[in-house]
Amino acid sequence: MATSGVDGWLPENALKIMENALTANNNKIDAVVASNDATAGGAIQALSAQGLAGKVAISGQDADLAGVKRIISGTQTMTVYKPITTLATTAAEIAVELGNDKAPHADTTLNNGLKDVPSRLLTPIEVNKDNIEQTVIKDGFPQKERIITPDAPRRASFSSSRISLMRSIYVLVTRNEKYHQNLRNREGGR
């Protein structure tokens, strides 16, 4: 087993790392656990050059458009998906609690090496060829027509309901006067 951090989480750095791993192991690689879908893409590029794309299990994270397309095409095995609506709703709840001078509700604590940090953990979802329709496509992230149409224009894949949710969160947080007053007080009245 080999481990290597990918500087900047850049696909081109993942490509180089994967090329080196393939060379060092005579192309005998069983699986790749990538930090996100972009680095998985870099690793898959190296695997593809050796005729191994789709033959080596590879995971990513974030369910980005390119990763979802690679799962459908069979070159990426799975991605870790964190539903944006759940993340945004939880972030808004925490922001409101903080804005009201309340300690955010925590389900558990995680030690960051210095202290135990109150945490609210959400459950990620494995997305693979078998459940892609019931997960990311159902959630509209990314939109189905962007996955199926090979020449779809590159533009933001957020649906209008997602944009509205994000705007609502922004308005909710930025219009909370008590939050701003507390912030000004902490900064010395600026």
Q: What does this protein structure show overall?
A:
It contains eight helices and six strands; from the N terminus they run H-E-H-E-H-E-H-E-E-E-H-H-H-H. The protein has 190 residues and is of the alpha/beta class. The strands form two sheets. The protein has a four-stranded mixed β-sheet with strand order 1-2-3-6, with helices on one face. A two-stranded antiparallel ribbon has the order 4-5. Strand 4 and strand 5 form a beta hairpin. The model is unreliable at 151-180 (pLDDT under 50). InterPro entries: Bact_Solute-Bind_Prot2, Peripla_BP_I, SBP_2_dom. Belongs to the bacterial solute-binding protein 2 family. It comes from Raoultella planticola.
Q: What labels describe this entry?
A:
190 residues; alpha/beta; Rossmann fold; four-stranded mixed β-sheet; two-stranded antiparallel sheet; 13% strand; globular; signal; Bact_Solute-Bind_Prot2; SBP_2_dom
The gist of it:
With 190 residues, this protein is α/β, with parallel strands linked by helices. It has helices at residues 11-24, 37-49, 65-73, 84-99, 133-137, 144-148, 160-174, 177-186, and strands at 31-33, 57-61, 78-81, 108-111, 116-119, 125-128. The chain has 2 domains: 1-82 and 124-155, Rossmann fold; 83-122 and 158-190, no CATH class.
Largest sheet: spatial strand order: 1-2-3-6
Helix and strand sequence? HEHEHEHEEEHHHH
CATH topology of the largest domain: Rossmann fold
- Calculate the terminal CA-CA distance, rounded to whole Å: 53 Å
Q: Which consecutive residue ranges, at least 5 long each, have pLDDT under 50? A: 151-180
What is the C-level CATH assignment of the largest domain? Alpha Beta
Count of helix runs? 8
How many beta-strand segments? 6
Q: What structural category arises from helix and sheet content?
A: alpha/beta
Number of domains: 2
Strand content: 5-15%
Main beta-sheet strand count, sense and barrel state: 4 strands, mixed
Provide mean pLDDT, rounded: 81
